[in-house]
Amino acid sequence: MMLAAVTQFRVPSRPVAASLPVAVETTSDHELMIAVRAGEIRRLGDLFERYHKPLYGFFVRLTNQPSVGEDLVQIVFYRILKYRHTYRDEGKFSAWIYHLARKVAADHFRKHASTPTPTDPAVLHEQPAPEPQPSEQAATAEDVVLLRTALARLPLEHREVLVLSRLQHLEHKEIARLLDCSVGAVKVRAHRALKELREVYFKIRKEKAA
Known about the structure:
The chain has eleven helices and no strands. The chain is mainly α.
């Protein structure tokens, strides 16, 4: 299993003197990835701890299939290990890992030749998306279901830019690099996507009330 290939990197390091603690939290993502590239494979476990939840949320919201979210996360980290030598000392690590994640998602959609289906409320209850936003916590359970159903009905292009900007909190310039377009184009696309999301959301609410 790919997950085993990733989690095996979390082998405790050799004990160090108390005067020289290993402060993983103060080590940047970039520094950790440089170490992985140099052969310190165990440091990939630290990156896994930081990114597996955000990536899982990214995949769940893109595919609307919680059952495959974890599998896709495993594939991302497998590819990080496989292609670690391609990592460069430029840009942000978060942009690089989401670049890999987008490719993994594209491969998934191409392989299954399907688009996400509206969320089953029962599935949402059993496996809610990780780290819900404050707005979701304040909303009723029904509103959350309707919002996620509306998101699932958007074209992949619009769904992706909303997930990256509003839910994964990437900066516009990072998204621009990922999508290979200008920052202005990202802002326009995000604005249109949000407008469409609202329209679909209220349409679903109207259908439910009828």
